[in-house]
Design brief:
The chain has about 260 residues and is α/β, with parallel strands linked by helices. It contains eight helices and 14 strands. The chain has one domain: 4-Layer Sandwich (Metallo-beta-lactamase, Chain A), CATH 3.60.15.
Length: about 260
């Protein structure tokens, strides 16, 4: 299994900044932020599943465009996986005919371009031998992270979260954990904003990692433009012993 980062920024502003989207092999997306927009039409048409962490625009911005672009090129619906609360937000506020057409009814409800499929925390979704499990997260809207397991090795992507003891209990049960991708959106000088918006800053991340009982390689995602260098330096100062690295566009993980 190959996991490729399409976007991992906490904002936009230049050709190198793309918001969250991760491609698993050729047919599964985790989130559909602006990073997904760099895929070709042929690549977009091959995606059969999108696992959504939560409903914020930086994680779903390309989903409406993607289904609109390639829906008529496919012979089956694009399946969008998310919690019941997240899917209800997408249905009510995006695919509502006012902001965007409801592609669960196009061309008709019996043969739609898109389907919503509810997931629950802890349940396994198996796609051709690849296991996807929603993990606890703590954000301003209903949110989850994802555990991606090839059978040989696992990757955890936290999505957007602040402090969350339940997440670490789940992560510590993963015996074959190889990679941990965790957000740190703000620098320490913005700790109040991080807490209010339910993100992490380096000092908060350091406290969270005291709960980690595994030894994965750690990668930092969702850094805010304009604070990238400062935040990474603060992470190095706080938790350098973990050797965290900044996640990069087009980085590939083998599982």
């Amino acid at each position: 299994m190959k996991v490729r980062v399409l976007g991992c920024s906490g904002g936009i502003g230049g050709r190198h900044l793309r918001t969250t989207s991760i491609l698993v092999d050729h047919d599964v997306l985790i989130d559909a932020g602006t990073g997904a927009g760099d895929l070709s039409i042929a690549e977009l048409a091959q995606i059969d599943h999108v696992f959504v962490t939560h409903s914020h625009l930086d994680h779903v911005a390309c989903l409406p465009f993607m289904v609109d672009t390639v829906g008529d090129m496919r012979n089956k619906p694009l399946v969008v996986h998310g919690t019941a609360a997240t899917l209800e937000i997408l249905r009510t506020h995006i695919f509502n005919w006012a902001v965007w057409p409801d592609f669960t009814e196009i061309p008709n409800a019996e043969n739609p371009f898109m389907q919503f499929r509810v997931i629950r925390q802890g349940e396994v979704t198996d796609i051709a031998g690849r296991r996807f499990v929603a993990l606890p997260a703590n954000h301003t809207v209903p949110a989850v992270g994802y555990h991606v397991d090839s059978g040989d090795a696992s990757l955890v992507f936290t999505g957007d979260t602040t402090v969350c003891a339940e997440l670490w209990r789940a992560v510590n049960r993963i015996r074959n954990l190889r990679y941990l991708i965790i957000e740190t959106a703000f620098s320490n000088r913005e700790k109040k904003l991080a807490a209010a918006s339910k993100h992490l800053c380096p000092n908060m991340l350091a406290e969270e990692l005291t709960l980690l009982q595994r030894t994965p390689e750690i990668f930092i995602t969702h850094l805010k433009p304009g604070q990238i260098e400062l935040t990474m330096q603060e992470i190095e100062d706080c938790i350098g012993e973990f050797r965290p690295r900044m996640l990069q566009n087009n980085q590939v993980f083998d599982l």
